[in-house]
Amino acid sequence: MEAFKALDRDQSQTIDPKNLVIAFSTLGEEKKMDQNMARKIINLVAADKKDSLNYEEFIKLMTMEPEIDDKESDNSEDEKQPLNFDS
């Protein structure tokens, strides 16, 4: 709940693309996330597809298993790979 509250800067009870962009830039990610990429990530789990996540959808996103493209991975299948935001 604390992570959700930290991302919900406007206290709207939702996380929108702007919130994700700010969070990733605050974390110092080398590859900056843009609003379009944030929308794609949110819409992976947002039931209403309105470009925002409620708390339950946020939990779902945080607990998703990342999909791995076998062509890009030469690691064993047992290793978890980070989400690829470059697509």
What does this structure look like?
It is a single chain. The protein is mostly helical and 87 residues long. It has a single domain (2-62), classed as EF-hand (Recoverin, domain 1), CATH 1.10.238.10. The chain is 37% helix and 0% strand. It has four helices and no strands. It has helices at residues 2-7, 17-26, 35-42, 55-62. The chain is globular.
CATH structural class: Mainly Alpha
CATH-level-4 superfamily name: EF-hand
CATH architectural label: Orthogonal Bundle
What is the structural class?
mainly alpha
Kindly state the number of beta strands: 0
C-alpha Rg (nearest Å): 14 Å
Sheet-strand content, in percent, reads under 5%
- Overall tally of structural domains: 1
Distance between the termini: 29 Å
Low-pLDDT segments, ≥5 res: none
Name the overall outline: globular
The helix content, as a percent range, equals 25-40%
Instruction: Please tally the helical runs, counting DSSP H or I stretches of 4 or more residues.
Output: 4
Write the layout of secondary structure elements.
Layout: H1 2-7, H2 17-26, H3 35-42, H4 55-62
